Amino acid sequence: MQILAPAKLNLCLYLGPRREDGLHELCSLFEPLALADPIEVSEREPDEDDEVLCAGVEGENLAARALAGLRARGWSRPPLRIEIEKRIPVAAGLGGGSADAAAVLRLAAGEVEGREALAAEIGADVPSQLVPALALVRGAGERVERLPEPASHAVVLLPGGGGLSTAEVFAEADRLGLGRSAAELGELAGRLRGVASAGASPLAYAELLANDLEPAARSLHPDIAGALDALRVAGAPLALLTGSGPTATGLFADLAAARAAAARLDRDDTIVCEAGRAP
Fold first, then answer.
1. Interval 34-72: pLDDT, tens
2. What is the three-class DSSP state of 45?
3. What is the reported pLDDT for 58?
4. Residue 60 pLDDT
5. In the chain, what's the furthest Cα-to-Cα distance?
6. Pick from 2, 123, 155, 213: CA 20 to 30 A from residue 26's CA?
7. Domains and CATH numbers, the chain
8. What is the phi/psi pair of residue 261, to 5°?
9. What is the pLDDT of the chain when averaged over all its residues?
């Protein structure tokens, strides 16, 4: 069988205080993209071990951690071979590894207790990806409130080669003294919930869409500024950093407008796709 692991886009990311566990309180709107990693799942022989393959990704894949976590909780399906085709750029702020892990966890829906807790153990972005949908995300990613599907829109992504470490970006944000109070995060969450619950395109509430990590990411990856400027010149009504970067994102009313902007950009790393609903 083949399953899809859609990328996620941070429509906004507000940074709060650092917690005792070292993580930061956040307030963000996540939405799925049509950009996705295809994952082929097949059964192996009963005497064989599980196998997770992901060409081009060094080290342990989060999908392998997800599968091992399911086995540790007693998941008894036959041994599996999981082959991931990476279409989501790696270390680009698009949650590709988390998407793959969540897709593996979805295989055990209704069969293993505590999937949500396991998702949070694997990574901050994984809980929201268990059901890819527009969501208001709080805490360090573990508090997920799903919202109505937004009106159709599209994005142009400029990944810039990826390779930006999330941990390094958060450390740089701390060094720069970035962040908001818990009270401000709560107020922003209420405003985001109010506007997003109407099912409008994110462009209808563009004034609320910002990324507090942008100064830190730009400090580590100065090319981000040029990518954001290029999207604005190409006609993006809104250009912002997604996640911890370095992907610069332009939001457009529809796919035709996004494709026209991509043609004007004429860059090799450009990705155009629909947004707001999983493929």
1. 999 999 999 999 999 999 999 888 777 899 999 999 999
2. coil
3. 76
4. 75
5. 58
6. 155
7. 2-275 (3.30.230.10)
8. -65, -40
9. 96
Question: What is this structure's pTM?
Answer: 0.94
Mutual angle of helices 62-72 and 115-122, in 10-degree steps: 140
For residue 205, give both structure tokens: 């509430």
Q: Is the pLDDT of residue 266 over 90?
A: no
HSE of 29 in the Cβ direction (CA atoms, 13 Å)? 26
3-state secondary structure of 198: coil
Per-residue model confidence (pLDDT) at position 138: 97
Residues constituting the chain: 279
Long-range CB contact pairs, 125-130, < 8 A, 24+ = 125/8, 125/30, 125/95, 125/98, 125/243, 126/62, 126/66, 126/98, 126/101, 126/102, 128/8, 128/30, 129/5, 129/6, 129/8, 129/95, 129/98, 129/99, 129/101, 129/102, 129/103, 130/102, 130/105, 130/106
The two tokens of residue 138 are 């709080």
Q: Which residues are catalytic?
A: 8, 125
